[in-house]
Design goal:
The complex is a heterodimer.
Chain A: E1 17-21, H1 23-33, H2 43-48, H3 58-73, E2 79-86, E3 99-110, E4 115-124, E5 127-138
Antiparallel strand pairs in A: 1-3, 2-5, 3-4, 4-5
Chain B: E1 11-13, E2 18-19, H1 22-31, H2 37-40, H3 42-47, H4 62-66, E3 85-94, E4 103-116, E5 119-130, E6 135-145
Antiparallel strand pairs in B: 1-4, 2-4, 3-6, 4-5, 5-6
The chains are: A alpha+beta, B alpha+beta.
Chain lengths: 140, 155
């Protein structure tokens, strides 16, 4: 069921979204994105540059978070603009549970031409990991 | 070594075309945990009004890596393995959707390098278009080069 512009107001809250990132998630994204930066898969290298451990690609956390919006809008091409700051590294533990990322979203602007702005809050253990995340969404 | 300020304003057009395929969109969508059928199945995409499977909004972030990761891979730019580079910001403006069959041209421009305390911040704007010059996406990446400020010239 896709969100409709006519039913959307400033303050409309999107269905909450959560996902887990495991070590294999990062390795899979390395291949898909052809970004093999070692801090995303190699604990030895990550620790050698002062990180607590392997960290997720910021773009992977962002991509998973934006699914909240594309699922809500019903089409991935509905997100016509987005922006974010990667403010806190997402450490991916070497276990079977990985790290849980929780996302909430709310409509902050209703624009012309069936467009709205959604602001996302993206947190790990109640700490914000992506800041200022906004998506400009084309609804039907 | 500090990053090479001569790169500010410098552009590079990748010497390869990026060919968007159904399988790459599918691989990327599954890697980000997105099972939306319009990314995976051409018939579902057509039923949704697209001419073929369409890419998730962050698919374009992969194109600069695939086409050489300039300027990070340019020895004159001054990136070192240690201290390391962290991704700080990203924004994208999609002028139109990306779909299987697209042939994309990438031009990357270094728009900023400046010091922030002991670190350096640099911005690269990636302009992605079709071979015919139709704008597809403007992608902007900001990164921090940790601990490289005031450490001499990269040249």
């Amino acid at each position: 069921m896709s969100a409709r512009y006519i039913d959307t107001e400033v303050g409309t809250r999107l269905p909450d979204h959560a996902f887990r990132l495991l070590r294999v998630s990062g390795i899979r994204y390395c291949g898909a994105a052809t970004d093999f930066t070692a801090i995303h898969w190699n604990e030895r290298v990550a620790k050698s540059v002062g990180l607590p451990g392997v960290i997720a690609h910021g773009a992977l956390t962002l991509a998973n978070s934006l699914r909240m919006v594309t699922d809500w809008a019903g089409d991935p091409t509905a997100v016509v603009e987005y922006r974010t700051l990667f403010t806190r590294p997402v450490v991916v533990p070497d276990d079977d549970d990985g790290v849980l990322v929780e996302v909430t979203g709310v409509v902050t602007e209703k624009l012309d031409a069936n467009r709205v702005v959604v602001a996302l809050t993206v947190q790990v253990a109640d700490k914000t990991v992506l800041t200022g995340t906004r998506a400009l969404v084309q609804l039907s | 070594m500090a990053l090479n300020r001569d790169f500010i304003g410098r552009s590079r057009t990748a010497d390869e075309i990026y060919e968007v395929t159904r399988e790459k969109i599918r691989e990327f969508a599954l890697a980000i945990g997105d099972p939306n059928p319009v990314c995976l199945d051409a018939d579902a995409a057509k039923a949704h009004g697209h001419s073929d499977v369409v890419a998730p909004p962050t698919f374009v972030t992969m194109v600069p890596f695939r086409l050489g990761a300039w300027p990070l891979t340019d020895a004159d730019f001054g990136k070192r393995r240690e201290p390391f580079i962290v991704h700080r910001e990203q924004s994208a403006i999609h002028h139109r959707s990306v779909q299987a069959g697209d042939r994309l041209l990438l031009t990357s421009t270094v728009t900023e390098i400046r010091e922030i305390g002991q670190h350096e911040r640099f911005t690269v704007e990636h302009d992605i278009s079709t071979e015919a010059g139709e704008p597809v996406c403007t992608l902007v990446d900001v990164a921090i080069s940790r601990g490289t400020a005031g450490t001499g010239d990269a040249r």
